[in-house]
Design goal:
By secondary structure, this protein is α/β, with parallel strands linked by helices. The chain has twelve helices and ten strands.
Length: 351
């Protein structure tokens, strides 16, 4: 049983957003390949619009979507929110959903694919290192700060799942962000190190050895090795040990699948991931902080651990969505509506 649990955790530990839903959000039916319900299908005057943009970050082409509010006027000033996507996810999934919903409330928003991932450049593909993901967030702030209508004095940050953990790190030092919110925060370092719900502590040294060998092979010009690259049957998915994994596979592979989204990441990335933690130096955050999570989420322990450590701000709130699992905060309308209502209240006061 132990070995089966460990194997399942190794296969799925790369998940960072996830969901279970009815088939509804086919990216092929959307001209912008958006994979969420209620997505924009065309830019209409007087309504929220989407703008595909690219920019350079450290020499890498970054692909992003900017959402502008109804009746957007570049000569006016708007509060703005940077949205960081989950591990394995892309801007067309949950990050885009929340970016669009916030734009409906009058915000300019940006959701970008991380470097080495999605439609952004960078080789080898699917490198997943904390330093890169944190720099992605700084880079979104760089770009959107130059965008017409953005009020840089009212710049907020929203991190979802793995993007939430990286947002906690980015906001420690990047004081351009005047307010920070996380949704279903996933501490990638802790999970890659200890396993989900600390289920892999016994194999830490073994996995570090594997990652070290993978880096040696890469440096020698050999094949790039990946972790989390698996194609599971419905029966195998049903047997996975955690809701996050079961619903995550449904969300990413079925109901909200997108060709640029993948669970896999370079095995050598573990050298960086396993020595990192989203709560390190979290006391440097001195701006308003909102952390949102579902009461039935088996990832809730990560939010509950991080929240009291954020001692640098007294303006903070832990908001629990009753009945929601981790992935259900990505797509299930009653839960999404609660989260968006809370976010608009939070940013409305803090930006």
């Amino acid at each position: 049983m132990k070995s089966k649990l460990a194997k399942a955790a190794v296969v799925t530990v790369t998940i960072g957003l996830f969901s279970g839903a009815s088939m509804a959000a086919d990216y092929k039916q959307n001209p912008f390949t958006l994979a969420y319900d209620g997505a924009i299908t065309e830019n209409v005057k007087g309504k929220v619009n989407i703008h595909s943009v690219t920019y350079k970050l450290g020499g890498i082409d970054i692909s992003a979507n900017v959402y502008t509010p109804a009746n957007y006027d570049a000569t006016r000033k708007y509060p703005t929110v940077v949205v960081a996507h989950p591990n394995g996810g892309v801007k067309e999934q949950v990050a885009g959903l929340y970016a669009q919903r916030l734009a409906e409330h009058g915000y300019i928003t940006i959701a970008a694919d991380a470097a080495y991932q999605g439609a952004s450049g960078g080789m080898p593909r699917n490198v997943d290192k904390p330093a890169h993901r944190i720099e992605d967030i700084h880079g979104m702030a760089d770009f959107i700060s130059q965008y017409g209508g953005v009020d840089t004095a009212r710049l907020g940050l929203l991190g979802i799942c793995g993007g939430g953990g990286y947002s906690l790190a980015a906001a420690q030092t990047d004081k351009r962000f005047k307010a920070l919110a996380t949704l279903s925060m996933f501490n990638s370092g802790r999970v890659r190190r200890n396993g989900y719900v600390d289920s892999q502590r016994a194999t830490i040294q073994q996995r570090l050895q594997q990652a070290s060998l993978a880096r040696t092979q890469e440096a020698a010009g050999g094949e790039v090795l990946y972790s989390g690259d698996a194609n599971l049957s419905d029966e195998q998915i049903a047997k996975l040990p955690f809701d996050l994994y079961r619903q995550g596979y449904e969300y990413y592979w079925k109901t909200h699948a997108h060709p640029n989204s993948t669970f896999k990441y370079t095995t050598s990335s573990l050298l960086d991931l396993m020595r990192w933690d989203a709560t390190d130096r979290i006391e440097l955050i001195d701006k308003p902080l909102l952390m949102i999570a579902g009461s039935k989420s088996d990832s809730l322990y990560m939010t509950e651990e991080a929240f009291p450590k954020a001692t640098g701000t007294k303006d903070k709130e832990l908001f629990i969505i009753d009945g929601a699992t981790h992935i259900e905060t990505y797509w299930k309308q009653p839960y999404v509506n609660q989260a968006v209502e809370k976010l608009t209240e939070f940013y409305g006061k803090s930006l």
